[in-house]
Specification:
CATH topology of the largest domain: Isopropylmalate Dehydrogenase
Radius of gyration: 20 Å
CATH class of the largest domain: Alpha Beta
Number of helices: 11
Structural class: alpha/beta
Number of strands: 12
Order of helices and strands: EHEHEEHEHHEEHHEHEHEHEEH
CATH superfamily of the largest domain: Isopropylmalate Dehydrogenase
Number of domains: 2
Mean pLDDT: 93
Largest sheet: 12 strands, mixed
């Protein structure tokens, strides 16, 4: 059985709809169902000169055929113009996520791939929204861990979308132990890595310099590492974040756990911005995403690169089959 993948088209004024149209030229080993407004997709295809057959989703299984995109129609709240987001469409964006999540929790979808949404627009509409990661965790009851993947480089985050001043307080002994347990478990179950080797970064410069540049490493990070080692996990650290990404050091590990968003993401986006994939670990469903935002300045121009979305779909297909993603 080919997996059926839900592809949410994201912010209608951003690049999400046209990226969904661009990947329709490819063949995937799955049934791909794009969740979005059919008229919006058709209009954007005409605007960009893309020849795509938009096939209505009727619940039956069809292999992804080049030149055809199966669309589960969700009507916009108000018409959308490329590059001009409207908070009145926030309800539409959330509706796409609700359908995808409910379908993944049931038997409709094997995995979810998400195009980018605009967090500010959703919040401005009165809908509290921190991000896809937190949204899916709340709806599924999972313990989310964000991990970015490109090639053999896997970078996970101990905290996600937080102001920098709140990061230290959010890193606790229990939260780090839980994050490491999820990371170890999913690397085994989904990537088939029998004994995952995990490097844990420090929070402060030079991993705290023995307490002279901060005490989080001594008080929290090192004790969490010690506890998880006693439980059999192959974890090392705290390691200075400015040297852990040296290729010679990276070769010793299957994944790196960084302490906050901008400690890990700049590195992985530098290595593979067009191919990196955002994966949410710790959920009872499979969810992958592009590693970039709505790119409102590129929407409707035809210059948006679909590489990250292609990689996200390909990885979702592999993750839909346990231990199929490869080490």
């Amino acid at each position: 059985m080919r997996p059926r993948i839900a592809l949410t088209s994201g912010e209608p004024a951003g690049v999400g709809p046209e990226l969904c149209l661009r990947i329709a030229s490819r063949r995937f080993d799955c049934e791909l169902v794009c969740l979005g407004d059919r008229e919006l997709l058709g209009e954007r295809a005409r605007q960009l000169g893309l020849r795509v057959n938009l096939r209505p989703y009727d619940g039956t299984v069809h292999a992804q055929e080049p030149g055809t995109l199966t669309v589960a129609h969700h009507p916009l709240c108000v018409p959308a113009a490329a590059g001009r987001p409207d908070r009145r469409n926030a309800r539409y964006v959330i509706g796409l996520l609700e359908h995808a999540c409910d379908g993944a929790l049931g038997s409709e979808f094997s995995a979810i791939v998400t195009a980018p949404v605009h967090k500010g627009i959703i919040n401005d509409a009165g809908q509290p929204f921190t991000g896809h990661t937190e949204y899916f965790a709340e709806r599924t009851g999972g313990l989310p861990v964000m991990m970015l993947v490109t090639g053999s480089l896997r970078v996970a985050l101990a905290t996600t979308h937080l102001p920098l001043r709140e990061v230290s307080a959010a890193i606790t002994l229990s939260s780090l132990c839980d994050t490491l347990a999820v990371l170890d478990r999913d690397l085994r179950a989904r990537w088939g890595i029998e004994h995952p080797r995990i490097a844990v970064c420090g929070l402060n410069p030079h991993a705290g310099e023995g307490g002279h540049l901060g005490e989080e490493e001594i008080r929290v990070i090192a004790p969490a590492i010690d506890r998880m080692r006693r439980q059999g996990l192959a974890v090392q650290g705290p390691l200075p974040a400015d040297t852990v990404f040296v290729p010679r050091v990276l070769s010793d590990y299957d994944a790196i756990l960084t302490m906050y968003h901008d400690q890990g993401l700049p590195v992985i986006k530098h290595v593979g911005f067009d191919t990196a994939v955002n994966v949410t670990l710790g959920l009872p469903i499979v969810r992958t995403s592009v590693d970039h935002g709505t790119a409102l300045d590129l929407a409707g121009t035809g210059r948006a690169d679909a590489g990250s979305l292609l990689a996200a779909i390909e990885l979702a297909v592999k993750l839909a089959h346990p231990k199929a993603a490869g080490a």
